[in-house]
Amino acid sequence: MNIIAYSKALYTTWIYYSPERILFDAGEGVATLLNNKIYAIKHIFLTHGHVDHISGLWALINTRNNAMGDREKELNIYYPIGNKGIEEYLRFIKKMNSDLRFNLNVFPLKDGQIVYLREGNQPKYIKAFSVVHTYSEKSFGYHLYEVRKRLKKEFQSLSQKEIAELSRKYGSDYVSEKFEKKILTVSGDTYLLKKEDVFDTDILFHECTFFKKEDRKYKNHAVLEDIIDLIKDTKIKTLILYHISGRYGKRPERFLENFKEELKNINVHIVKPDKLFKL
Ligand SMILES: [Zn+2]
Ligand SMILES: [Zn+2]
């Protein structure tokens, strides 16, 4: 299990990605539901400052400081630069927890900024990207990238033995090249991501507040049929719909039945409101 998430539009949203110890957003209830896993979190990436995405931060930081666990591990929080609400809130949290036992580091991020999670042979990093949500503040989505190596095109027809020979003679960089692979994309709240944003990502978390177009009053949240259009020919392997409005009841998956054909080669999951999601 790599992913734990809880999300209900307007109420709370958070996604925990355990391989990199990342929490995306920190809505209400995150500390309660993650329980002692809160000590494993190393990075928190906030998509924007709406209450349903940040209100669990205080409890998380406070609990981590006081409960039984590894209280000395540092915690890094990232957010879209210039977000006054988040800055005020973090200032307040620091003031109320002046006895913090761990380093709480806060980093405002610019559009396109990269945060390295691990360096070395196969570096991994997060890249922030702007999304359309509200006009009053900047909102981000986040990509998780891994740098991988592949055989250069001109050597692909050679045998293993020949490749090994070349590699021995001229070094491995001669036969292989590095490329960036998108492993995970989290949309945050948005009207809709762009095709280039979602292209070739393994796992796409896309907000899907509405299943019916007529339910959307303003152009700030996504609708299922637009997401279906968006992911066409993008090589996505897994689509996870989250930030779903509570109005669709206990069986929101019924809305997917109209799109069986479009979704036949994709693993689709729904983070149901009121239910802890694990994958
Ligand atoms: Zn929201
Ligand atoms: Zn929002």
From TrEMBL:
Q: What Enzyme Commission number(s) appear in the record? A: 3.1.26.11
Q: Which UniProt keywords apply?
A: Hydrolase
What's the domain of life for this entry? Bacteria
What InterPro entries does the record tag this protein with? RibonucZ/Hydroxyglut_hydro (IPR036866)
Keyword presence, Hydrolase: yes
Do the record's keywords include Hydrolase?
yes
- Which GO-annotated molecular functions does the record name? 3'-tRNA processing endoribonuclease activity
Q: What class of enzyme is it?
A: hydrolase
**PANTHER family named in the record:** TRNASE Z TRZ1
Q: By what name is this protein known? A: Ribonuclease Z
Origin organism of this chain? Thermosipho japonicus
Top-down, what is the taxonomic lineage of the species of origin? Bacteria, Thermotogati, Thermotogota, Thermotogae, Thermotogales
